[in-house]
Design a protein that fits this description.
There is one protein chain. This protein has helices at residues 14-24, 39-49, 65-73, 90-99, 111-122, 130-143, 146-156, 161-171, 176-183, 187-201, 206-215, and strands at 5-10, 30-36, 53-56, 80-85, 103-106, 127-128. With 219 residues, the protein is of the alpha/beta class. The protein folds into 2 domains: 5-131, Response regulator (Rossmann fold, 3-Layer(aba) Sandwich); 144-215, Arc Repressor Mutant, subunit A (Orthogonal Bundle), CATH 1.10.10.10.
Length: 219
Amino acid sequence: MERVIRVLLVDDDPLVRSALSLMLGGQTDIDVVGEAGDGQAGVELVDALQPDVVLMDIRMPVMDGLEATRRLHSRPAPPSVVVLTTFDADDHVVSAVAAGADGFLLKDTPPSDIVSAIRTVAAGDAMLSPSATRSLVSRLRSTTTTERTTTAADRLTVLTERELEVAVCVGRGLSNSEIASELYLSIPTVKSHVSRLLTKLGSSNRVQVAMVVHDAGLV
């Protein structure tokens, strides 16, 4: 049977939630299991509904999306979080990634791309819009120093040779299937390597692994 991805919508605008729910409702492999109007309510609903993916706005009352994302990713086995916002600012992208977001998309992203992002992060991959990727890489390049590069390189010394190869592929933005093809590995083996990367590097998701690889100058 086809796996159904459980999705929670967290946005303070009921019209946005309604539009997203209507759009996703037409997908046979996606089920919108709940909605919340602020980050605090969203965190509480995650406990109750156990979604696979959370679509998270940034600017909300009570608790914003970045703090809600941080709280979710401080837990064991958190859901994947895709930040969906109208604001394409460098600091928002970097803050979302630092908080543990697995994806960053603008609200004017085509519906098909939002659906694709949900499927991508549910499969364990990261998803950034092209503009968000440019912002992140630009920020990393502008703030990279010798000390930061050295620190990142030191963090990578705990990896085995194969794990480092996988980390570099993650830094290049390759999916698990693409990594498997390039390194002649099975997809389950790649997933195991990625899981060990997250543990050894103390990272919440693949994007944070990519940041370490970029800082070390390997990509």
